[in-house]
Request: fold
Amino acid sequence: MIGRYTRPEMGHIWSMENKFDIWKEVEILACEAQAELGQCGITKEEAAWIRKHADCTVAEIDEIEKVTNHDVIAFTTCMAKYIDAEIPEGEPKPSRWVHYGMTSSDLGDTALSYQIVQAADIILEDIKKLGETCKRRAFEFEDALCVGRTHGIHAEPMTWGMKFGSWAWALKRAQTRMEQARECSATGAISGAVGTYSNIDPFVEQYVCEKLGLTPDPLSTQVLARDRHAQMMSALAVTASTLESIALQVRLMQQSDVIEAEEPFTKGQKGSSAMPHKRNPITAERVCGLSRVVKGNAQVAFDNVALWFERDISHSGAERVALADSFTALDYMFGKMQWMLDGLNVYTDKAVHNLWRTKGLIFSSKCILALVDTGMTREDAYVVVQRNAMQVWEDIQQAVDGPSYRERLEADPECKIPAEVLDKIFDPWQFLQRKGVMFDKLKTLEF
Reply:
């Protein structure tokens, strides 16, 4: 991922330095496990020497790989140089125990799982922080009226608090999915060629995984099955879709013709190089755009599940890009969403103004019920309610300052709704008498 969309902590996790540090730790732990086991000849003193002296640099590994064309061999070769640097000529080299009985996938896949867990923990913290922000703002705007929209068309009254609340619950589901994906991904395998433990004792796998906080794969086939990675990438993609959904609502609310909410516009910020009046929803748009990257990368993970027999490396190059980019982009998206929603400007007066722009049409559902209560059939009631609604709608389309919806109903001889009932019907809060149920549930939400 380009630096513009990379936050430092997540960027470090997917750096080559961190990758090789994890590789080094896996190899050292394997040596310590072999020494503990006491089967292959390595002593505890040699294992301690390896831990103390093992080292490598990215630059050195890159130079060696130019010759070997194999990153793991380049890594072990580089590390061996440091381990053996102080060993006198002619004496046994402790580095001979590094990678003993292991395959490249034992090292790479186990280390990758550890990286994924590191990255997932950052995303989980991102989710928690944004979820708590949405919950807090939901109660801040619990009683802030606005109109609900379906198909982009005014539907019925609701409150801004319900919007924030629905976002909080969506993030809670994202948290659950991410936790499940993290658990599935926290798996290691040090089982040798085709996973038979032919040259390495299962104790080594158990030891290394325990030290790293991973669970040994019950039956690896030299590589960890990529359905695990696909589950993680799917969780990332769905989470990105959730952020996109929220950002899209902000974009819609910030339209000049709506302007019920607006992302922060900071001092000195410029909206357009040509039109100084512009305050564009660039942050929300950026989140929507990056969501496409994360969702697209999920398909890469799905394709990586099918490998030839016990392994091939068709997945390797693709997932090195897709995993790092998806975690990095999503973390960046969370940073922007946190800034945007924590400081989101909600224009409550404009929201109420917009609620009445359709001159009372949003109360039509209760009008039907009121006519049914008078004894009229639902079908006949629908005709009366819709007929008057369409007349108001035509006035709105033509910018004609005609009668309101209530006035048309009162003038319709077939509409027998008493005035006192109409008073209640045309009160937005009559639609929200049970909103307490939703906010009582929201009180129980914990991240």
Q: What stands out?
A: The longest strand covers residues 153-159.
